[in-house]
Write a structure and sequence with these properties.
Blueprint lengths: L1 H8 L18 H11 L3 H13 L3 H29 L3 H8 L4 H37 L48 H9 L14 H18 L3 H27 L4 H9 L4 H4 L3 H15 L5 H6 L8 H34 L11 H10 L6 H42 L2 H16 L7 H44 L3 H17 L1 H12 L8 H4 L4 H10 L3 H15 L7 H9 L2 H22 L1 H15 L14 H12 L1
Subcellular location: Membrane
Main location: membrane
GO molecular function: amino acid:sodium symporter activity; L-amino acid transmembrane transporter activity; metal ion binding
Length: 647
């Protein structure tokens, strides 16, 4: 079957076997750029400033950097290497690594779908900010409706004061927050209540809000346009969007870094006297490790998908160091941008930085208010909103493409003729848009709060734990290191990669430990009254958190039971071991002779049929696929490889 044949053609062992049928990146640079876009870490913009202020300044940055080097680097290498080794999306990758843990890939896909539906809600709010920004320009109104009361009576329904108002500490809605952003009479809160009409309870779904539905449909249309033509088109799209977002971030950094008061804040942070003592606190390390895992996007299967489109000879060990350096640069720019603004506002108004910095998505609204304290508020607000939009769209593009790759892997040749990539992309985006509708309703705000609140406790960490168990322990970090040796030429690179993979043995307990600590701190009391008013809210939240994890358990049980019932004459232990044994080795050894003879047969006929076969290869491929120049039917390249091998 073509689907099985192409899975072998993406594997190693024989230098004659090279990529066939499945697209690969146009260049190595595309892979680096797309992966950097995923590693941009927009969550750092919202979380790290507060984490730095709460955890000893430089102490947290040191813990974050060490976590990057000792935890993220080995796991990043692991995820990219299994994708490059198997040439498949998450589900088929984990089946090839360990059949009993194929459910890990299914869990990653389900978790990605839920996350994307939620992200469209947050990104939709950014699109609405952009719309109202341009509306104020075209309508020739000064100020912005979420910052100013004057000139925007249609967005007010009572007493109003500007969002940049400094409140007395005893009337602040948020602990220690002195800006009026979240006060019920502020321009920001009244603006939000106008554009997002909420029901009185999460159980009252209410009407679909047209403005939210439109922006969510626009988001899914953009996703469709980015993935419908395959990985090479995705690379071009993200190359443009990442370049634009970097330019915008540099503009913001250049504007804010030289503001008065910014240097004083950095001086205070880097001269923290007790930073070494803070490094002895386990809570600081827990927060740093959790943040770095979330910021880099491990556990979603995205790196596995991106790595699967590499050439098998790609030096992925060298790549991960470039990616890590890029992530550090991006995070540094984001930290300097936000903390420079905070330092300027603190110096200008005599406030402590801790009094105006929040964490999470509330910090996004705070940043929008920060711009009211600098000149050219509209211009820099627009730059920031476009920067945020492009950064989040890149993540959505990559996660959606992971789903597309998984479906293409599952369909095979016959079904891919009926369902070309364009059709599959359309179906994915239609399903995503349908799943996002619930967040466009009048209870969408509370559903979003409930889902995001419960998913952050342990779901991702549990998935990452099982990923490390299956790859590092069952398949074996040592075995994967040998696979890297067979894929890349550089001796130094595979030795370094092999050593890094060994670290994953001791990293395995870390994700599950973080999950347990988070569950120990669980509290339903922190949710909005509109959520707590429904008696089933807590159980619904628990269900949302558990659903992505069920495939791991259910698939494992199914495979183990199936193995127990297979060939009764075989000892039970051997039957069970078959469920955990990777099929990679068996398939390669079994088919290596067949593939070698096939390639030699093609080489025999290459002299007289090269043009004809090359033409048929480009037109005979399945609909939605392209037989690439790297395919075995391009005989001149294979002939060169064969001669080189014989010599």
């Amino acid at each position: 079957m073509w689907f099985e044949d192409r899975s072998l053609s993406n594997m190693k062992l024989s230098s004659l076997i090279i990529e066939e049928w499945r697209d690969i990146w146009s260049s190595k640079g595309e892979f680096i750029i797309v992966t950097l876009a995923y590693l941009f870490g927009f969550t750092n913009l919202l979380n790290i400033p507060r984490l730095i202020l709460d955890n000893g300044g430089i102490a947290f940055l040191i813990a974050y950097l060490i976590s990057l080097l000792l935890i993220i680097l080995p796991i990043l290498l692991l995820e990219i290497s299994i994708g490059q080794l198997t040439g498949r999306g998450p589900i088929q990758t984990f089946y090839n690594i360990c059949p009993v843990f194929k459910g890990i890939g299914i869990s990653q896909i389900i978790f990605s779908i839920i996350l994307m539906a939620m992200m469209t809600r947050f990104l939709g709010s950014i699109f609405l900010y952009i719309f109202h920004l341009f509306w104020t320009i075209t309508d020739d109104r000064s100020g912005l409706p979420w910052l100013n009361c004057k000139n925007f009576p249609e967005y007010q329904f009572g007493n109003c004061f500007e969002s940049s108002t400094i409140l007395p500490s005893n009337i602040s809605n948020f602990s220690q927050n002195r800006l009026a952003t979240f006060n019920e009479d502020s321009a920001f809160e009244q603006f939000i209540n106008i554009i997002d009409i909420s029901s009185e309870s999460i159980s009252q779904i209410g009407k679909i809000q047209i403005n939210w539905l439109i922006v969510q449909c626009i988001i899914w249309f953009l996703i469709f346009c980015s993935i419908c033509f395959g990985v090479r088109w995705l690379g071009k799209i993200i190359m443009f969007s990442l370049s634009m977002s970097l330019i915008l971030l540099f503009i913001l950094f250049g504007k804010t870094f030289l503001l008065s008061g910014s240097f004083q804040l950095f001086y205070d942070l880097f001269n923290e006297n007790e930073w070494f003592e803070r490094l002895k606190e386990w809570q600081l390390w827990k927060k740093a490790i959790e943040q770095v895992i979330i910021a880099t996007g491990l556990g979603f299967g995205a790196f596995c998908t991106l790595g699967s489109y590499n050439k098998k000879s790609n030096n992925l060990v060298k790549d991960i160091f470039f990616l890590l350096i890029g992530h550090i640069i991006f995070v540094s720019l984001q930290i300097f941008f936000v903390l420079s603004l905070v330092g300027h506002i603190s110096n200008k108004n005599g406030l402590s930085p801790i009094e105006i910095v929040l964490q999470g998505e509330n910090q996004f609204r705070q940043i929008l208010v920060y711009f009211s304290f600098i000149s050219y508020t509209k211009i820099f607000t627009g730059i920031f909103l476009f920067f945020a939009s492009l950064t989040l769209l890149n993540i959505l593009f990559i996660l959606s493409f992971g789903i597309l790759a998984t479906i293409e892997d599952a369909l095979g040749e016959k079904w891919s003729r009926c369902c070309p990539r364009f059709t599959i992309s359309l179906l994915i985006c239609c399903f995503g848009a349908a799943s996002s509708i619930i967040f466009a309703t009048q209870s969408g705000k509370y559903i979003y709060e409930l889902a995001s609140g419960y998913l952050k406790y342990s779901t991702l960490m549990v998935i990452l734990f099982f990923e490390l168990v299956s790859v590092a322990w069952i398949y074996g970090s040592h075995t994967l290191g040998l696979d890297i040796r067979s894929m890349i030429v550089s001796t130094i690179s595979w030795v370094i990669g092999h050593c890094l993979l060994y670290i994953n043995y001791i990293l395995t307990p870390i994700p599950i430990a973080i999950a347990v600590i988070n569950l120990m701190g669980y509290s339903f009391a922190k949710y909005s009254p509109q959520i707590k008013s429904w008696s089933w809210s807590e159980w619904t939240g628990i269900g949302i958190a558990i659903i992505p994890l069920l495939p791991i358990l259910l698939w494992s049980l199914m495979v183990i039971l199936k193995s127990c019932n297979y060939t009764p004459r075989t000892p039970l232990f051997m039957r069970l071991s078959m469920a955990f044994h990777s099929p990679l080795r068996n398939q390669l050894i079994k088919r290596n002779e067949h593939q070698s003879s096939t390639v030699h047969h093609r080489l025999m006929n290459s002299g007289e049929n090269t043009n004809q076969n090359t033409h048929s290869s480009s037109h005979g491929a399945s609909t939605g696929y392209m037989l690439l120049p790297q395919a075995p039917l391009v005989f001149n390249k294979i002939n060169h490889k064969l001669n080189k091998t014989l010599i």
